[in-house]
Design goal:
The chain is mostly helical. It is 84% helix and 0% strand. Keywords: Coiled coil, Membrane, Transmembrane, Transmembrane helix.
Amino acid sequence: MVMVDEGSLVSTARNNGPKAFAGVIALVAIVLGVYAMVEPMSQRIENAEKALADYKLDVRERLAERTERWERELQRIRERMLQDDEREKDDSARFARIDAQFVEVETQLRGIRTIANLRVSAEERTDRMLWKKLFGEELPSTGYWPPVDTPSESGE
């Protein structure tokens, strides 16, 4: 931060005249104006980063909960398979049951993939929202965060 001593301003005015004093005042006004513009932008960026971090943490927690639930479900299926194997010795019934359990496992895995895809799309939406809040325009279509100039865009 720029510190201005009143005594130095007065001595500048006495020694160099009113024009120098006006120049010093203009310089101080410019510095204070720039500082006033930069400070709110940095606060907005900080708030946006906090909101983004909270959102990503929430998505990770929900994904972890669902993954744990599916892991418990898969463990239950495995235990049921072992119990059924001990009870049933008939090959045809066992194959039909195993086939049904594979279908159930595939359904669970599709659910896990769906959640992972939802997480990726949520992060992409969050990136676009953050970009728009910070810079007031849509995120460039390059798909990079932060955006990177490609040779075709920069005219090289």
